[in-house]
């Protein structure tokens, strides 16, 4: 009897990404990953992204599901909603990927393979391990801010990962259940950090594979001052929450 490939669900939160979304779905379809599904989590985009997602669900090249949310309350909340839905629908592997085309779809097969062939609980698409890179058109101050953010987070939480704020990840479904993804409260970059911290707390392995991070070409960034402030405060909140982190195992 032929074995069934694990169900891989790519969770893509959207807000005003009507131009990028069809491109992402086409790129994912071209990757030819077996049993691949896309779950679009749209926060009531005024530009009609939700309607574009519905059209893709009807006639797209791969299976597309749509979760329509009526409020826009942050990237973290959208990811939590999408990951929870993906688990409810039987996903074995959940990929989190932003809608701005900054995350290379061609890295997903390697990320999924790393999950399947190692003891990794989650695999990060990392800009800062050997072979990884940030966008060449990033100004020096943005590169410096990104490097500082990773140093800052690791200094406080001792995550020992090269790209602690990475937003491109492949998760075992069981890992998301073990870290209680529904209980994650943070947003923005702080959401990525809290997810990593919960993984480290439980003594699970974080692996990193290199990616080249690209700057968005369409649409606008959603980074707000409130998100930046939260990102600075959350590591301290986690550090002094009273939950001692267990030793982590990190592999680049």
From TrEMBL:
Organism superkingdom: Bacteria
Domain Glycosyltransferase 2-like: 9-168
Key word Transferase present: yes
Pfam family, one: Glycos_transf_2
Chain ranges passing through the membrane: none
Signal peptide bounds: none
Keyword hit for Lipoprotein: no
Residue ranges of coiled coil: none
Keywords from the named record: Glycosyltransferase, Transferase
InterPro entries in alphabetical order: DPM1-like, Glyco_trans_2-like, Nucleotide-diphossugar_trans
Record-linked Gene3D superfamilies: Spore Coat Polysaccharide Biosynthesis Protein SpsA, Chain A
Family: Belongs to the glycosyltransferase 2 family.
Name under which the protein is recorded: Polyprenol monophosphomannose synthase
Natural source organism: Rhodococcus jostii
